[in-house]
Amino acid sequence: MNILSKLFSRKSSDSQTPALPPLRRSYRGVEIKSEAEIEIMRRSAFIVATVLKEIADLVEPGMTTADLDAYAENRIREMGATPSFKGYHGFPASICACLNNEVVHGIPSPKKTICAGDVLKVDTGAVQNGYHGDSCITIAVGRVSPAAEDLIRAAEETLYKGIEQVKPGNTLLDIAGAIEDHAKAAGYTIVEDFTGHGVGRRLHEEPAVFNTRTDRLPNMRLKAGMTLAIEPILNAKSPHTRTLRDRWTVVTVDNGLSAQFEHTVLVTPTGYEILTDRSHITANAVGDRLSV
Length: 292
Hints:
Blueprint: H1 3-9, E1 25-27, E2 30-32, H2 35-58, H3 65-78, E3 82-83, E4 95-99, E5 102-104, E6 119-128, E7 131-140, H4 146-163, H5 172-185, E8 189-190, E9 196-198, E10 205-209, E11 227-230, E12 233-235, E13 241-243, E14 250-252, E15 258-260, E16 263-267, E17 272-274, H6 285-290
Antiparallel strand pairs: 1-2, 3-6, 4-6, 5-14, 6-7, 8-12, 9-10, 9-11, 11-16, 12-15, 13-14, 16-17
Helix pairs in contact: 2-3, 4-5
């Protein structure tokens, strides 16, 4: 029996790993996804996008971040996937929930009550048939200050400026440069302590996707089949951060507001596809898509 025969005859005991793993190839250590893998990722990403859209619609003052975490976990499992974050390096929840000056990795808690005027970031992932989707949104809870509105709008615009640079032949620094230029022009700083990343069979894969121009890593050219989590984080004031005693929650050093948006993006032969796009999701779409 040759290697391929062994691969496709092997049965998996892990419900999140395909029994018949699709073939893939790599480019400088970055996985280039096959059509079969991409279709699995579309479903995982769709689950993530659906959960985030629903959370954005249901969140209201008086809820806790633990309420949102319980909702997200239930919905992810209800749609046939597993939360990517829960248990990942010991993280205890299915979402990261960050309020106001919290930058990333906020642990949901029944003691964290969401108030009108809050800037709420919700980041989540789902793994289905062995492949992950990953996305983050920032929500203005009720009526927020004009400064908060501007920051949230700029953070979302900055993400899309980066995504617009995704196409074969462009480079990672084309993405980073577009993000950096738009954020700075809007008057905000970029958190450099955290980057985007490849995503697929693992939640975090190569390459690192920087949000500012850098010479710290080779400037890789993009190829069709790459799947990237692009996720700029903008701060209203200082870009510097610190980690709280829980060893997870990262906050701004000056108590300034922070906003983030993230999408899982596929490099296509002609450009890009946003796998975690929420714009076309409707109340009845979940069952239709997942039954395909």
